[in-house]
Write a structure and sequence with these properties.
This protein has five helices and two strands. With about 160 residues, the chain is mainly alpha-helical.
């Protein structure tokens, strides 16, 4: 039963949509919480970057979840797009947060200027940011391609 002003996600959305909206809401909340603790990090400027990344990425994930039905890709590419976007966005936030906590700055020289960390931290942050950025880019590329295509009469996708 729907209450006034309440959306029943189980009835109104696919599991793909729900996973994107929930992942976005959680990332948004993590960003808000991190924003309250920015000054407690070793590198507050990087913590601010991580906070903003989480808030903006969380909103983007929720928007993607809402417009997911407009994406026209095969089942495998839909799964790849969904998970690479989610993992990439969470991974980027995690990499920035690790950098803020440790002072690692090799991969992020602008927000990390004046900070440094031990070699293990630098490598971990660099790998996390690089892999996450790649995954996120792949996911967004697939998502955009899926938006550009649409289904017509016989179910064949047509380029707009």
């Amino acid at each position: 039963m729907l209450l006034p002003g309440r959306i029943n996600m189980s009835a109104a959305a696919t599991s793909f949509q729900r996973s994107l909206v929930v992942a976005g809401a959680i990332l948004f909340l993590l960003g808000l919480l991190q924003g309250a603790a920015v000054q407690s990090f070793a590198n507050p400027r990087m913590a601010l970057s991580a906070h903003l990344t989480a808030v903006q990425s969380g909103l983007a994930l929720m928007i993607v979840g809402v417009i997911w039905p407009a994406v026209s890709l095969n089942a495998l590419l839909l799964k790849i797009a969904r998970w690479t976007i989610i993992i990439g966005m969470y991974g980027l936030w995690l990499g920035l947060t690790l950098s803020a906590a440790s002072g690692a700055s090799d991969a992020l020289p602008i927000a990390g200027a004046g900070y440094s960390a031990n070699r293990l931290s630098e490598v971990a942050v660099s790998a996390t940011v690089l892999v996450s950025s790649g995954l996120m880019t792949l996911g967004w590329l697939l998502f955009v391609v899926g938006l550009i295509r649409r289904h017509v009469g016989g179910g064949k996708p047509e380029r707009l």
